[in-house]
Amino acid sequence: MNLKFHPVADKSELSNNDQLHVSLDEEEILICRENEDYYAISYYCSHATLALEGGYIYNSKIICPYHGAEFCLKTGQALTAPANEEIKKYPLSIEGTTISIGVEQV
Length: 106
Ligand code: FES
Known about the structure:
Number of domains: 1
CATH class: Mainly Beta
Bound molecules: FE2/S2 (inorganic) cluster
Structural class: mainly beta
Strand content: over 45%
Largest sheet: 4 strands, antiparallel
């Protein structure tokens, strides 16, 4: 398998602490911005598969808006209950103002 990067958004689409839902190769992904850092994680929480979109972002973490589990935006690690499984984290690159996400190609 190899990683292929796909352009999915422009930086201008996200203001600070904003999020953007993108669908890519049947993967549902949430792009999160905190200051000048951008992250790409699973759109869905690992606890009850509800959307992380709208979760509060702080200190490179996102809080699930449903039951309050926190996830590390850098690694996808579940940091607090009720989630105990990590969420998927995607490689993200920025060239100029274009945000691209890497997905594995079979
Ligand atoms: S769905 Fe996210 S903590 Fe329950």
